[in-house]
Amino acid sequence: MSFKMLKVATLTGTENEDQSKMGNTMKKTYLAYAIALSCSAITSAHAAPLQQAQTEQTEAEAKQDESLEEVITIGYRDSVKRAVQQQRESGGIINVLKKDDMGKLQDDSVSDALQRIPGLSVERDQGEGRFIRIRGLAPDLNSVSYNGTVLAAPEAGRRAVALDVIPSDLLESIVVNKTLTPDIAAGSLGGNIELKSMTAFDREGSFYSIGADIGYNQQASETNPKVSGVFSNTFDLGGKKDSFGVAFAGSHQERSFTTDNVETGGGWDFDEPGLEEFEHRAYAVTRERTGLALNLDYRPSDTSEYYFRSLYSEFADTEIRQGLITEFADPQLQDATGAGEIARELKDRKETQEIKAFVLGTEQTVGEWQLTLEAGTSEAGESQPFAIGGAKFVQEFDDGLGFSGVKKLELLAPDTAYQAEGYELDEVEVSNAETEETEKNVKFDLAYDWLQPSYQATFKFGGKVSQREKTAQEDIYIYSDFEDLGVTELTLADYQSGPVDYGLGTFGPGIDAGALWQLLEPFDRDDFYDEVESRIASYGIEEDITAGYFMFDVGFNQWQVIAGARYEHETRTANGSRYNDETETFTPEYAKFSDSSWLPSVVARYDVSDATIVRAAFSTGLVRPSFEQVRPSYFLENDDGDLKAEFGNPELESLTSTNLDFGIEHYNEALGVVSVMLFYKDIENFVYEADVAGRPGYEAFDEAVTFINGDDAHLYGLEFNLVHELKGFNSWLDNVLVSTNVTLTDSEATVDWLDDGELQTRDIPLPSQSDTTANVALGYENDVMSLRLAANFKSEYLAELGDVEDSRYDIIEDDNLTLDFSAKWMVNEYVNISFAANNLTDEPYYVYTGQRRYNAQYESYGRSFTLGIQLINW
């Protein structure tokens, strides 16, 4: 099999979607070859040469292929076919989700949609998907970009982007790059998640749809509305037909729910032994998601294009948390009682996160040259204006306090523990916090196609300059000693809100936030300012990155090889504060760091036959430490002669990985694929929190907690994927589609510490790495109905090191299995009605300390149901 003289532009992982300017002939010919193949979530890779593509293809064949492109369906199969076409054409090992597939299980956010891709799993907050892990690597070790611009992260201290902030309605597709080619910016070890916006040229002519959903949460007994809309159209401009396109998408959702929680936070003493403290929490949460996207395209000719991409997303999280905190005087065994203290605590806050992104660019083709110029910016922020971070009412008990149960701990206490009169106001903490991050970049890519009778090659190089800035500011106020302030109403009876609705046991009276704000109003807030906590929590970090790359893409016979390297130079400056409690003084902390890295990669593909493909890749990745880890904040105290410190480490090295991938895929003639992918990652400089007291520079310290680079870590695994459409039954079974994927991973890292001057070590798995991640979906679809039942499983994993020196205190997140159902009925070509049921088994969230019988956190969320209607070009 050899190349024909056909101009075909190969696509890398960042140059996906519809790129007609780089080869419409390829697109049409290849569609006929791949239209019946595979699934929307397979492990796939760069395009092979177009075997058997005939340049003498007749006009009739071309028209037939074109008609296939123009068929618009809203079924699952169509989404599968379009996704696999993009995956097979890509230059890197990727997975793709199309817009139609994202909506099948009422995926309100990007994180919900991504959890069913092979090798991906989700970290949840309040039962909702939030952060994404790729192949067992934690969210901070992966990157998220929007049309090529790296998204800023709204949360203080983190690089990971919380993808529940972004509504899935705003996107046309999501591409997960698992192998990083040189034209992808550094910033990940596991992979890059590329969010692709819709454009007017994704559809022919005018298109619009309006959708409305009503949701219901069983545990909260609340209804939750959602509205969304999409509009796109093309217009004649400058004498050229359909040269200007406008696409707009908007979405707004409100969701109210409750969470019942009981947690120890790892508060176990395994030497005494017993439990030191635990807490019951009742959450009432309202979340609002608002998203807007406006995209403009101007194509004055077949060789010239100008475009503008924009994204705005706002996520407002209003939370009222009632807490019942039990602290024992001595570590307490199960079902025993003793002395202690109970605090009733209120947290009342509204936290708003925003993400904005703008990309302005042009793509020009001159002969065999293609030039892309882009300028992009991303802004993210998190604000929490004047919130009650913790208001405590305390009651002491000489005896009678204990606990029973294992996962769901219950309080054993006298009756007075549930009466408001026994609790006295202790303190109220108020905080005002704001975080901002901006990322600005300018880049260019230049490619040259070199076509020969027996092979073709594309040479590509480019450069990028980016600036990133993160600032965090928090003001903390502690109100206490109320009796000295002349307050006479000091018991909970004066501020109670009535009994708390709590599903895991008896809770008792709650705290009224409004009454507390009335209490604080007469006082001058500045008199209660906690300068130490406030200044230590505030910092600023700037990063300047200059990057360049070169790569070539060569195809010959059954082979295609992509190879090259990327160079990145980083300069980082950071500002913070140092506090010495012995002298009660602050001094500015300033740090500067610079580093350079070469990141080579080689990706290869061999077509054994038209149906069987072998893929292999060598690549390198780089992740910079999180802002929390490198911030130059330093707290030093003298605790009765013991010198203790807690601080960030601006000198941390970047994490790097060497990655190997090898796999095989086999397609059948129907909609089906079997694929197996092996992967291995050798990670250097992984970061963990450690006590460095006694080490060089800290010999005089009794405790010095910071972040350090560890020795090498290793991660390896296997991804298996199967998609099969039943055929040959001549019955309803021919409409059944089975999809399953399983990812098996293992990892090892080493942590160390000093014990009496001797260096000790122990091996741990990498945090966030599950041994098993699996998805199973059973679907049925005909001309008017689409049904899908899907299960998502992830095995337990190390969430955090409770104590570097003792594995008994490791915090482990338990196995989790969720079951979701969705249905869609096409009333006619303009109207469809949908229904979804999520978390059908009411799966709780459970985290334990060392062993399953030692609770760290247990939460339940209840089932959720959604009914929706969508109108399309009616």
UniProtKB/TrEMBL annotation:
**Domain called TonB-dependent receptor plug: residue spans:** 87-191
Pfam families in the record: Plug, TonB_dep_Rec_b-barrel
- Highest taxon of the lineage: Bacteria
Domain (TonB-dependent receptor-like beta-barrel): residue spans on this chain: 397-840
- List keywords of the entry alphabetically: Cell outer membrane, Membrane, Receptor, Signal, TonB box, Transmembrane, Transmembrane beta strand, Transport
TM ranges are none
What main location does UniProt list?
membrane
Q: Decide whether keyword Signal is in the record.
A: yes
- Can you name a GO cellular component term? cell outer membrane
Q: Into which family does the record put it? A: Belongs to the TonB-dependent receptor family.
Q: What is this protein's name?
A: TonB-dependent receptor
